[in-house]
Amino acid sequence: MATIGDVARVAGVSRSTASYALSGKRSISDEVRQRVMAAVGELGYTPNAGARALATSQTMVIGLLAQFLPDEFAPAMLQYILGISDSARELGYDVLLVTEEDGTRALKRITDSRMVDGVVLLNVAEDDERLPILRTASQPGALVGLPGDCTGVDVFDLDFEEAGRVMVETLHRLGHRELVLVSQPEHVVERGGAYVWRLQNAATEQAALRGMVLHTAFGAAQQPEVGRQLHALLDAHPRATGLLLNNEAAAAALPSVLTERGLRAPQDLSVIGRYSDAFARTFSLPYSSIESAPDRLGRMAVRQLVDRIERKARAGPHVVRFISPELVDRGSTAAPRS
Amino acid sequence: MATIGDVARVAGVSRSTASYALSGKRSISDEVRQRVMAAVGELGYTPNAGARALATSQTMVIGLLAQFLPDEFAPAMLQYILGISDSARELGYDVLLVTEEDGTRALKRITDSRMVDGVVLLNVAEDDERLPILRTASQPGALVGLPGDCTGVDVFDLDFEEAGRVMVETLHRLGHRELVLVSQPEHVVERGGAYVWRLQNAATEQAALRGMVLHTAFGAAQQPEVGRQLHALLDAHPRATGLLLNNEAAAAALPSVLTERGLRAPQDLSVIGRYSDAFARTFSLPYSSIESAPDRLGRMAVRQLVDRIERKARAGPHVVRFISPELVDRGSTAAPRS
DNA sequence: CTGAAAGCGCTTACAG
DNA sequence: CTGAAAGCGCTTACAG
Lengths: 338, 338
Description:
The structure is a homodimer.
Chain A: H1 4-11, H2 15-23, H3 30-43, H4 49-56, E1 61-65, H5 75-90, E2 94-98, H6 103-112, E3 118-121, H7 130-136, E4 141-144, E5 154-158, H8 160-173, E6 178-183, H9 186-190, H10 194-209, E7 213-218, H11 225-236, E8 242-245, H12 248-261, E9 270-274, H13 277-282, E10 288-290, H14 294-309, E11 320-323, E12 327-328
Parallel strand pairs in A: 1-2, 1-3, 3-4, 4-5, 5-11, 6-7, 6-8, 8-9, 9-10
Antiparallel strand pairs in A: 10-12
Chain A binds a DNA duplex through α2 and α4.
């Protein structure tokens, strides 16, 4: 590969002049610039990323830490990843994707070795072990997901509490009095998936406020368990008229469960899920749902991260920003059968 | 951050000695090694990746080019990505994920700038524009998906032709005589999704061989189109007794379509899909299917790529390897209703 | 407006 | 077994 030295030689200038002609960081006579550009074209020159990183202390790479934990619902993660990757590129950054199970070690590795200028953490737990590492790192970090302690990082998440309230309130207004909420698998929650609690607790409170009964359960992430559980739940709560799903696999499993039971939504049961519209359309999930906006959250995180990297907001106050839940109506709610 | 100079100073040795003590590339007295290691621990030293890349011409990073084309079924891609990312890490490599729409430009950028030691291409088209770039790059490349011309690259794919034959043959043996095959959206095929043709053509041939009727159609990638199309197809071919789905979104949409029509699989219609078991379990896809083995394909590609990067097979002959389709029985096939 | 030189932090021949 | 030095390919003060 051609180096900037080759370009300089062909253009008949010094290396510094070639470099400045490319970066535009100081004024260059038109004629020289032409010659340099011609040489670049002729040689097919592209700067060596490692050399540039060494010289500038900037890699133009963002680290993306996505943990795929066993028993978690992986596919939803893709939408976050895509939003992050696309917006990073728009801002001039590439993405180093790290799916290592030991996220702590991975984070330490990529920050200490300076492979990245900043980091986005996905799937953040209440007491996330990666956060202490991130705080000692010299690169800034943005999170998708709300941890217990937000100091030193920018945080973006769906307002899961409001989501829980909206779910309950929507069915309350329609006249429902007894609901079942199916959350993510217990493993997910134990690992610190605080969003599960946030939604569930808020839903429980709201139900209490309205004098409603709300049963809660952890759903599985896969068949055949998830289907069996849904049957068991409906068996256990025959008077429940509404089903809330904070669990994508349960939403995918529900149609056949209802069919098997001879039930229809919303005639026999009102259903509200929590997933993105793109997801619903791709997987034929027919229920009204709280939009989880993964693409938007990913983009927000990257934008803020890049702002910080580029010093525009390096020292500024850190932000914690929630997206308001929006209910997308797919016609799966109605007044309960009396 | 500490540099190797700091380590050397603290350990009271030269930088080269410190470097060799860490790499083990020449013998070092035990005592000196101890001092170096102690210094490393004390300072929390991690080599600077950019500097190392510059010195060694190795980045220990693999580029992963995943194109997410509009109207394509994105979620299935995640399984490939995960297999690739995990196996890369096991082999000591990180992954640079590139989802840029202009894959050609992206590939040129990451190879020319030497950000990566090698590249995995996903979603390879029959006449993939990225291949000429890859062949001129100095890094090796591995593909998941079969292009028209395999020279200079290692190729891994499901044997889609055999998959098509297995689908048809399975239903033929059960006594079916008229089938419908739903493929991916036409856009995907036009863009060069050769695997769609491979499966479809082989299925058509096999059907002809057996004196069966096979109707083919392109399915949509999302609701509501995909559901409507399935209804239209079943309307159009009332005598078809078997449905083959080379389209995940169609598989997800089918259960409700069948319910709406009062049909059941396999009693009224035999169904065979083509997707991974993990996918089927996560999304409650209840049909027997050809296992697409994304995880395995991704791992094979990475292993071969790393072999080539590390010269074990740098100059060796390039391989084109097909995975045999395996039919996972989920009970959705039976003899046709007579 | 342009050039010669130093420096980023490593690795690895070359010498001893 | 160890050290001094060159070099990887850039960028950017420093001089003119």
